Fold:
Amino acid sequence: MPYFWIILGMAVVTAVPRVLPAFLPLEMELPSWVRRWLAAVPYAALGALIFPGILSVDPSRPWVGLLGGLGALLPAWKGMPLGASLAAAVAVVYALQWLLH
Amino acid sequence: MIRMPAFANRGRFEALYRGMAMAFPIMLGYFPLAVAYGILSFQAGLPLRSTAAMSVLVYAGASQFMAVNMLGLGAAGTEIVLACFMINIRHIVMSMSLMQRLADLTPAGRKAAALGVTDETFALLSFSEIRSGPTKGWLLAGVLVSAYGAWVSGSVVGALLSTVIPGDLAASMAIALYAMFIGLLVPNVKRHPPALTIAAAGALLCTVLTPQVGAGWAIAFGTLGGGLVGVLHAASVPEDADQEEQA
Structure:
Protein backbone atom coordinates (compact mmCIF):
# COMPACT_ATOMS: atom_id res chain seq x y z
CA MET A 1 0.00 0.00 0.00
CA PRO A 2 1.46 3.43 -0.88
CA TYR A 3 2.37 5.64 2.09
CA PHE A 4 -0.22 8.15 0.93
CA TRP A 5 -3.20 5.89 1.71
CA ILE A 6 -1.80 4.77 5.05
CA ILE A 7 -1.28 8.40 6.08
CA LEU A 8 -4.75 9.37 4.89
CA GLY A 9 -6.30 6.47 6.82
CA MET A 10 -4.38 7.47 9.95
CA ALA A 11 -5.50 11.09 9.47
CA VAL A 12 -9.17 10.05 9.34
CA VAL A 13 -9.09 7.76 12.40
CA THR A 14 -7.23 10.45 14.37
CA ALA A 15 -9.44 13.36 13.35
CA VAL A 16 -12.78 11.62 14.02
CA PRO A 17 -12.36 11.12 17.81
CA ARG A 18 -11.05 14.68 18.11
CA VAL A 19 -13.83 16.41 16.19
CA LEU A 20 -16.85 14.23 16.98
CA PRO A 21 -17.60 15.92 20.35
CA ALA A 22 -17.68 19.31 18.59
CA PHE A 23 -20.73 18.12 16.64
CA LEU A 24 -22.71 17.19 19.75
CA PRO A 25 -25.43 19.70 20.70
CA LEU A 26 -24.46 21.94 23.61
CA GLU A 27 -27.98 22.97 24.53
CA MET A 28 -28.83 19.72 26.25
CA GLU A 29 -28.93 20.03 30.03
CA LEU A 30 -26.53 17.49 31.48
CA PRO A 31 -27.43 15.81 34.77
CA SER A 32 -25.36 17.02 37.72
CA TRP A 33 -23.41 13.76 38.08
CA VAL A 34 -22.34 13.91 34.41
CA ARG A 35 -21.13 17.48 34.89
CA ARG A 36 -19.12 16.40 37.94
CA TRP A 37 -17.73 13.53 35.88
CA LEU A 38 -16.64 15.80 33.02
CA ALA A 39 -15.11 18.25 35.51
CA ALA A 40 -13.04 15.42 36.99
CA VAL A 41 -11.92 14.09 33.59
CA PRO A 42 -8.90 16.45 33.19
CA TYR A 43 -7.48 15.35 36.56
CA ALA A 44 -8.01 11.67 35.79
CA ALA A 45 -6.43 12.20 32.36
CA LEU A 46 -3.34 13.79 33.91
CA GLY A 47 -2.96 10.82 36.26
CA ALA A 48 -3.36 8.33 33.40
CA LEU A 49 -1.02 10.30 31.13
CA ILE A 50 1.74 10.60 33.76
CA PHE A 51 1.69 7.04 35.04
CA PRO A 52 2.79 4.48 33.88
CA GLY A 53 4.05 6.40 30.81
CA ILE A 54 6.75 8.23 32.77
CA LEU A 55 8.46 4.89 33.43
CA SER A 56 9.21 4.57 29.69
CA VAL A 57 11.28 7.77 29.42
CA ASP A 58 14.27 5.44 29.58
CA PRO A 59 12.66 2.05 28.89
CA SER A 60 15.58 0.05 30.30
CA ARG A 61 15.72 2.14 33.52
CA PRO A 62 12.20 3.06 34.73
CA TRP A 63 13.60 4.98 37.71
CA VAL A 64 15.16 7.60 35.42
CA GLY A 65 11.67 8.83 34.49
CA LEU A 66 10.58 8.70 38.13
CA LEU A 67 13.52 10.85 39.26
CA GLY A 68 12.84 13.26 36.40
CA GLY A 69 9.23 13.46 37.57
CA LEU A 70 10.40 14.18 41.10
CA GLY A 71 12.51 16.99 39.63
CA ALA A 72 9.35 18.46 38.10
CA LEU A 73 7.36 17.98 41.30
CA LEU A 74 9.47 20.14 43.61
CA PRO A 75 9.33 23.46 41.66
CA ALA A 76 5.61 22.92 41.02
CA TRP A 77 5.01 22.38 44.74
CA LYS A 78 6.88 25.62 45.52
CA GLY A 79 4.49 27.44 43.18
CA MET A 80 7.13 28.14 40.53
CA PRO A 81 6.06 28.51 36.86
CA LEU A 82 5.61 25.56 34.50
CA GLY A 83 8.93 26.29 32.78
CA ALA A 84 10.81 25.66 36.05
CA SER A 85 9.34 22.15 36.28
CA LEU A 86 10.35 21.48 32.69
CA ALA A 87 13.88 22.76 33.15
CA ALA A 88 14.38 20.79 36.39
CA ALA A 89 13.07 17.53 34.93
CA VAL A 90 15.10 17.80 31.74
CA ALA A 91 18.21 18.67 33.77
CA VAL A 92 17.74 15.61 36.02
CA VAL A 93 17.26 13.23 33.08
CA TYR A 94 20.15 14.69 31.09
CA ALA A 95 22.43 14.45 34.12
CA LEU A 96 21.41 10.82 34.73
CA GLN A 97 21.88 9.85 31.08
CA TRP A 98 25.27 11.52 31.05
CA LEU A 99 26.35 9.75 34.24
CA LEU A 100 25.14 6.36 33.06
CA HIS A 101 26.76 6.41 29.62
CA MET B 1 -20.70 50.92 22.65
CA ILE B 2 -18.24 52.77 20.42
CA ARG B 3 -16.26 50.46 18.20
CA MET B 4 -12.53 51.04 18.12
CA PRO B 5 -11.10 48.85 15.36
CA ALA B 6 -7.44 49.60 16.06
CA PHE B 7 -7.84 48.75 19.72
CA ALA B 8 -9.78 45.58 18.91
CA ASN B 9 -6.96 44.42 16.66
CA ARG B 10 -4.48 45.00 19.41
CA GLY B 11 -6.62 42.90 21.73
CA ARG B 12 -6.58 40.07 19.22
CA PHE B 13 -2.85 40.34 18.72
CA GLU B 14 -2.29 40.30 22.47
CA ALA B 15 -4.51 37.26 22.87
CA LEU B 16 -2.70 35.46 20.05
CA TYR B 17 0.64 36.32 21.60
CA ARG B 18 -0.51 35.24 25.05
CA GLY B 19 -1.63 31.92 23.57
CA MET B 20 1.75 31.42 21.94
CA ALA B 21 3.49 32.14 25.25
CA MET B 22 1.18 29.68 27.03
CA ALA B 23 2.10 27.01 24.49
CA PHE B 24 5.83 27.44 25.07
CA PRO B 25 6.17 24.40 27.40
CA ILE B 26 4.38 22.26 24.79
CA MET B 27 6.61 23.55 21.99
CA LEU B 28 9.68 22.84 24.10
CA GLY B 29 8.51 19.25 24.49
CA TYR B 30 7.15 18.75 20.96
CA PHE B 31 10.06 20.05 18.94
CA PRO B 32 12.72 17.55 20.07
CA LEU B 33 10.20 14.70 20.03
CA ALA B 34 9.23 15.62 16.47
CA VAL B 35 12.92 15.72 15.53
CA ALA B 36 13.24 12.19 16.92
CA TYR B 37 10.20 11.13 14.90
CA GLY B 38 11.70 12.67 11.74
CA ILE B 39 14.94 10.76 12.29
CA LEU B 40 13.16 7.44 12.87
CA SER B 41 10.95 8.03 9.87
CA PHE B 42 13.98 8.65 7.66
CA GLN B 43 15.62 5.51 9.04
CA ALA B 44 12.47 3.50 8.27
CA GLY B 45 12.84 4.60 4.66
CA LEU B 46 10.03 7.16 4.35
CA PRO B 47 10.68 10.06 1.97
CA LEU B 48 10.68 13.59 3.38
CA ARG B 49 7.28 14.38 1.88
CA SER B 50 5.63 11.39 3.62
CA THR B 51 7.35 12.19 6.91
CA ALA B 52 6.08 15.78 6.72
CA ALA B 53 2.62 14.81 5.42
CA MET B 54 2.09 12.48 8.38
CA SER B 55 2.86 15.27 10.86
CA VAL B 56 0.64 17.72 8.96
CA LEU B 57 -2.34 15.36 8.54
CA VAL B 58 -2.14 13.01 11.53
CA TYR B 59 -0.48 15.22 14.19
CA ALA B 60 -0.35 12.53 16.88
CA GLY B 61 3.01 11.70 18.42
CA ALA B 62 2.58 8.15 19.69
CA SER B 63 0.75 7.02 16.55
CA GLN B 64 3.43 8.43 14.27
CA PHE B 65 6.24 6.74 16.18
CA MET B 66 4.28 3.51 16.04
CA ALA B 67 3.54 3.91 12.32
CA VAL B 68 7.14 4.44 11.23
CA ASN B 69 8.20 1.58 13.47
CA MET B 70 5.60 -0.74 11.91
CA LEU B 71 6.46 0.45 8.40
CA GLY B 72 10.10 -0.32 9.13
CA LEU B 73 9.02 -3.84 10.13
CA GLY B 74 6.96 -4.23 6.98
CA ALA B 75 3.50 -4.20 8.60
CA ALA B 76 0.36 -3.91 6.48
CA GLY B 77 -1.32 -0.52 6.05
CA THR B 78 -4.63 -1.67 7.54
CA GLU B 79 -2.83 -2.90 10.69
CA ILE B 80 -1.18 0.50 11.07
CA VAL B 81 -4.44 2.43 10.62
CA LEU B 82 -6.24 0.17 13.11
CA ALA B 83 -3.47 0.56 15.70
CA CYS B 84 -3.56 4.31 15.16
CA PHE B 85 -7.31 4.35 15.85
CA MET B 86 -6.88 2.35 19.04
CA ILE B 87 -4.19 4.71 20.29
CA ASN B 88 -6.21 7.85 19.57
CA ILE B 89 -9.71 6.88 20.68
CA ARG B 90 -8.85 8.51 24.02
CA HIS B 91 -9.08 11.95 22.44
CA ILE B 92 -12.85 11.61 22.24
CA VAL B 93 -13.03 11.82 26.03
CA MET B 94 -10.63 14.76 26.21
CA SER B 95 -12.36 16.61 23.40
CA MET B 96 -15.75 16.09 25.03
CA SER B 97 -14.49 17.55 28.30
CA LEU B 98 -12.83 20.49 26.53
CA MET B 99 -15.90 21.32 24.43
CA GLN B 100 -17.80 22.08 27.65
CA ARG B 101 -15.35 24.91 28.24
CA LEU B 102 -15.46 26.16 24.66
CA ALA B 103 -19.25 26.37 24.45
CA ASP B 104 -19.11 30.12 23.76
CA LEU B 105 -17.04 29.72 20.57
CA THR B 106 -18.71 29.62 17.16
CA PRO B 107 -19.50 26.09 15.86
CA ALA B 108 -16.73 26.44 13.27
CA GLY B 109 -14.31 27.65 15.94
CA ARG B 110 -15.14 24.68 18.16
CA LYS B 111 -14.52 22.24 15.31
CA ALA B 112 -11.21 23.90 14.43
CA ALA B 113 -10.13 23.81 18.08
CA ALA B 114 -11.19 20.15 18.37
CA LEU B 115 -8.84 19.26 15.52
CA GLY B 116 -5.98 20.62 17.63
CA VAL B 117 -6.75 18.41 20.65
CA THR B 118 -3.73 16.43 21.83
CA ASP B 119 -2.93 15.09 25.30
CA GLU B 120 -0.81 18.17 25.90
CA THR B 121 -3.04 20.93 24.46
CA PHE B 122 -6.02 19.39 26.25
CA ALA B 123 -4.18 19.33 29.59
CA LEU B 124 -2.87 22.88 29.19
CA LEU B 125 -6.23 24.34 28.13
CA SER B 126 -8.13 22.48 30.86
CA PHE B 127 -6.04 24.07 33.58
CA SER B 128 -5.43 27.52 32.15
CA GLU B 129 -7.42 30.62 32.83
CA ILE B 130 -9.21 31.33 29.56
CA ARG B 131 -11.52 34.32 29.78
CA SER B 132 -14.68 34.35 27.73
CA GLY B 133 -14.86 37.18 25.24
CA PRO B 134 -14.18 38.20 21.67
CA THR B 135 -10.48 37.35 21.84
CA LYS B 136 -10.90 33.85 23.31
CA GLY B 137 -10.64 32.27 19.84
CA TRP B 138 -7.40 34.13 19.17
CA LEU B 139 -5.87 32.91 22.40
CA LEU B 140 -6.82 29.33 21.50
CA ALA B 141 -5.42 29.80 18.01
CA GLY B 142 -2.16 31.01 19.54
CA VAL B 143 -1.88 27.88 21.70
CA LEU B 144 -3.01 25.34 19.13
CA VAL B 145 -1.17 26.67 16.08
CA SER B 146 2.09 27.05 18.06
CA ALA B 147 1.94 23.46 19.27
CA TYR B 148 1.10 22.22 15.76
CA GLY B 149 3.85 24.34 14.22
CA ALA B 150 6.45 22.98 16.64
CA TRP B 151 5.42 19.42 15.80
CA VAL B 152 5.45 19.87 12.01
CA SER B 153 8.65 21.92 11.87
CA GLY B 154 10.45 19.50 14.22
CA SER B 155 9.53 16.56 11.98
CA VAL B 156 10.97 18.25 8.91
CA VAL B 157 14.14 19.26 10.77
CA GLY B 158 14.55 15.69 12.03
CA ALA B 159 14.14 14.17 8.57
CA LEU B 160 16.58 16.68 7.04
CA LEU B 161 19.22 16.41 9.74
CA SER B 162 18.76 12.70 10.46
CA THR B 163 22.40 11.95 9.72
CA VAL B 164 23.79 14.54 12.18
CA ILE B 165 21.47 14.38 15.21
CA PRO B 166 21.62 11.30 17.43
CA GLY B 167 18.04 10.06 17.82
CA ASP B 168 18.38 9.00 21.45
CA LEU B 169 19.39 12.53 22.49
CA ALA B 170 16.19 13.99 21.10
CA ALA B 171 14.13 11.14 22.53
CA SER B 172 15.40 11.77 26.06
CA MET B 173 13.52 15.08 25.94
CA ALA B 174 10.38 12.95 26.36
CA ILE B 175 10.54 13.83 30.06
CA ALA B 176 9.61 17.44 29.16
CA LEU B 177 5.99 16.57 28.43
CA TYR B 178 5.63 14.52 31.62
CA ALA B 179 7.14 17.45 33.52
CA MET B 180 4.43 19.64 32.02
CA PHE B 181 1.69 17.24 33.13
CA ILE B 182 3.14 17.18 36.65
CA GLY B 183 3.52 20.96 36.66
CA LEU B 184 -0.17 21.29 35.74
CA LEU B 185 -1.39 18.71 38.25
CA VAL B 186 0.47 19.79 41.40
CA PRO B 187 -0.96 23.33 41.89
CA ASN B 188 -4.46 21.94 41.30
CA VAL B 189 -3.93 19.22 43.87
CA LYS B 190 -2.86 21.89 46.37
CA ARG B 191 -6.02 23.89 45.67
CA HIS B 192 -8.42 20.93 45.49
CA PRO B 193 -7.07 17.90 47.40
CA PRO B 194 -9.74 15.54 45.91
CA ALA B 195 -7.99 16.07 42.57
CA LEU B 196 -5.18 13.84 43.84
CA THR B 197 -7.62 10.98 44.49
CA ILE B 198 -9.05 11.39 40.98
CA ALA B 199 -5.61 11.54 39.33
CA ALA B 200 -4.38 8.56 41.37
CA ALA B 201 -7.44 6.56 40.33
CA GLY B 202 -6.74 7.41 36.69
CA ALA B 203 -3.08 6.41 37.02
CA LEU B 204 -3.91 3.17 38.84
CA LEU B 205 -6.51 2.13 36.28
CA CYS B 206 -4.17 3.01 33.42
CA THR B 207 -1.34 0.98 34.99
CA VAL B 208 -3.54 -2.07 35.48
CA LEU B 209 -5.01 -1.87 31.96
CA THR B 210 -1.91 -1.00 29.90
CA PRO B 211 -0.60 -4.60 29.66
CA GLN B 212 -4.13 -5.84 28.81
CA VAL B 213 -5.32 -3.35 26.19
CA GLY B 214 -2.33 -1.16 25.25
CA ALA B 215 -1.50 2.40 26.28
CA GLY B 216 -4.08 4.18 24.10
CA TRP B 217 -7.15 2.37 25.44
CA ALA B 218 -5.68 2.28 28.95
CA ILE B 219 -5.45 6.09 28.99
CA ALA B 220 -9.03 6.34 27.68
CA PHE B 221 -10.41 3.96 30.33
CA GLY B 222 -8.17 5.43 33.05
CA THR B 223 -9.53 8.88 32.22
CA LEU B 224 -13.17 7.77 32.18
CA GLY B 225 -12.89 5.49 35.22
CA GLY B 226 -10.74 7.87 37.24
CA GLY B 227 -13.18 10.66 36.44
CA LEU B 228 -16.01 8.60 37.91
CA VAL B 229 -14.38 9.02 41.34
CA GLY B 230 -15.14 12.73 40.94
CA VAL B 231 -18.86 11.94 40.72
CA LEU B 232 -18.82 11.12 44.44
CA HIS B 233 -19.62 14.29 46.35
CA ALA B 234 -16.78 13.65 48.78
CA ALA B 235 -14.24 13.72 45.92
CA SER B 236 -15.79 16.26 43.55
CA VAL B 237 -13.86 19.14 42.02
CA PRO B 238 -15.24 22.56 40.99
CA GLU B 239 -16.99 22.42 37.63
CA ASP B 240 -15.12 25.37 36.20
CA ALA B 241 -11.80 25.77 37.98
CA ASP B 242 -10.63 28.89 36.18
CA GLN B 243 -13.80 30.88 36.77
CA GLU B 244 -13.61 30.13 40.44
CA GLU B 245 -10.01 31.30 40.40
CA GLN B 246 -10.97 34.65 38.88
CA ALA B 247 -13.70 35.25 41.46
